[in-house]
Design goal:
about 850 residues; Phosphorylase Kinase, domain 1; six-stranded antiparallel β-sheet; three-stranded antiparallel β-sheet
Amino acid sequence: MDAKKWQQVKALLQSALELAPEQWTGFLEENCPADAAMRDAVTSLLEAHADAKSFLETRPQPNESVASTVTDPTPAGASTPSTQIGPYRILEQLGEGGMGAVYLAEQTEPVRRRVALKIIKHGMDTKQVIARFEAERQALAMMDHPCVAKVFDAGSTEGGRPYFAMEYVQGVPITAHCDRQRLTTRERLELFQQVCDGVQHAHQKAIIHRDLKPSNVLVSYRDGKATPKIIDFGVAKAIEHRLTEKTLYTEMGVLIGTPEYMSPEQAEMTGQNVDTRTDVYSLGVMLYELLVGALPFDSRELREAGFDEIRRRIREDEPSKPSTRLSTLDGERSTESAKRRKTDPSTLRRLLSGDLDWITMRALEKDRARRYGSPNELAADIGRHLKHEPVLASPPSTIYRATRFVRRHRIGVAVAVAAFLLLVAFAVRERIQANRIAREAATAEQVSEFLVGLFEVSDPSEARGKSITAREILDKGAKEIDGTLADQPELQARLMTTMGDVYRKLGLYSQGETLLEQALETRRGLYGDDHPDTLRSMNSLADLYLEQGRYDEAEPLYLVTIETRKRVLGDDHPGTLSSMGNLALLLFRQGRYDEAEPLYLDTIEIQKRVLGDDHASTLGSMGNMASLYLDQGRYDEAEPLYLETLETQKRVLGDDHPDTLISMGNLANLYVDQGRYDEAEPLYLETLEIQKRVLGDDHPDTLISMGNLANLYNDQGRYDEAEPLYLETLETQKSVLGDDHPYRLTSTNNLANLYREQGRYDEAEPFYLETLETQERVLGDEHLNTLITVHNLACLYRDTDRLDEAGRGFERVQRFCDAKLRPEHGFSLANLDEHAKLLRRTGDDDGADRMEARAKAIREKQ
């Protein structure tokens, strides 16, 4: 058999070994049906592979030639007989790959320890395999990293087969670990960053793994902390230097790696284009699987394809984005995938959309030049996402995608373009002038027809005696906009953005989201990312995400919008200022006060200079700044700013404007915090009455005012008035906003407070626990609202004599307050007061005295 044929045999063998034995026959019939000699050669090697299990798995007979055997009899109940190789006693087989088997062994000298022993399989000791195996041995010996398995020793059996002894990792594949522990998306990303760091270390040692996959990344516990370990550098390649005298510099025709995780350049099988970015691609597949719970390409479909088709798919087919792949899974599978990440399918899809889609798809770029250059770059972009900073990854441009399409279909595209240009040449001259004249008239006519069609719903024949609301007119427009304006995408996107904003202001978020996302996608396609209209749609969508409490999705949109608007429109443009103010509001709602305050101050200074003191945007920023002071307990700074804002809004906007009503409610909140109930209650009642009349009973702003009034009644001990108001608010919020919305969670927490203060502990505790679990998943462990629930639950534990649990809760809150809040913050002082009460009950009077003295000193300083 010539060299070329032999290379093909080896390639087929490598692929077949990744399949179950019962699939071998079908695989060979499909991939080499006309070459009996090649099929027979591969079959014989597969049979030798199957027979290899006899090596170290069956008791050797006296006439067999194997490594030296132990004279002790097999221990009772052992699954494999005891066999000695050098200083290692084989205990059991752990697994096997395409060229080596791994055994659990006990080292007897010079130290006693358990190791993983890897040995070349029987029938697989060709020069190429041995060269790769020795490369693995050398590569691992050069590494010293907590996420890379250590090599202790290396040698050969009496039969000449190389082996090495490495650190025995009692772990499970990273995907299995994450699913079993039900790690959140954030926790999976943080664990994955460690894997990237380990691979980066290998690259710094001039080693490429080339077969990264979950089964080669095991997670074990070290000092109580989950730590990933990268194993099996069996197909590693030296980048800069020769590993052994037997190293092969070319491996033409050999498909090295696992198809599902294999990079396009590996599928080329030239061996010349493999570099560190090959590992980045495999890391991208692993990241995809960790996020979605499924591979980019279905494993069964991929492996059932022919050998050449597998290579073609890897090289050419573009996988779906993670969020899209999740939505294509069947309902049961997507639900289970979300549960394993402590969320639901719709929330998981939202978490993946945006940054994580972009990061993953950049790692999976077919063109290596567009991929991350190193695992460190991939990990750094994940870090930016986790810290809510702009990521470097972004979707491929339309031009890039078109270029890729043309490269794959050159002949067809060339013919089509030629024909198209020929037709255009005849038509363009005649049409340019006519189109220019007709365009404006057609646009005006279509807008007119569309608006007239919307208001036909108020025709008596349509209304049938009912009064028609703005909501019904809006709903009709949303249904008809796709069909009526299908040939006017610019106008369609403009109306979608406007209608989406109206839906958001009505609190109808799901309807608004559909329109705003579609408008953004249309404008990106028409104008590109930097166009003012695209940026307006992007900002509107971020506003909607912010109102829904989807902060992780809103922040990157705001950051991109601000950076682009500053570059395109300038620092003083109203659009730039709007995005800056909204980002400051997002930071404030997340409790990131040190970041929000300077951004507000900068925004207000520019707004006053550019827009004027009475502009609605300036007043909105001033009101938000006052709320930030209120949240920090800075009442002397908050009250005059509230009063100034409210007075100006009443004069400029009117008493019943939504912004004016928000300021009235916020001023009442300040009075409640200061115990000025007689001033707060009439403000709440006036605000609520106007909101119900102007906005409706189920508008989010109305519901906030209802909850605030219930809080006031609760603070005054008016429980019979507070409870029904809480229940009504909570029920309406669930139906309008959904279970995970921060407003709903706050209302649930407040209702639990009422039950606790009445001594109804069995009713309060389930509400606290449900709220806390959802807040930790949706808002994070260090969000102010999350810690407020921890504090309230600690108070319940103290009141029910579960003092250890109460102490842990108060201490967790205090660590947060010390790190995130000013000492004079009302929440920080409240935690000191309640913690001191606990210490008194436990008999720690000294500790209670110190805590009370600390709180007193802070209050006196105020």
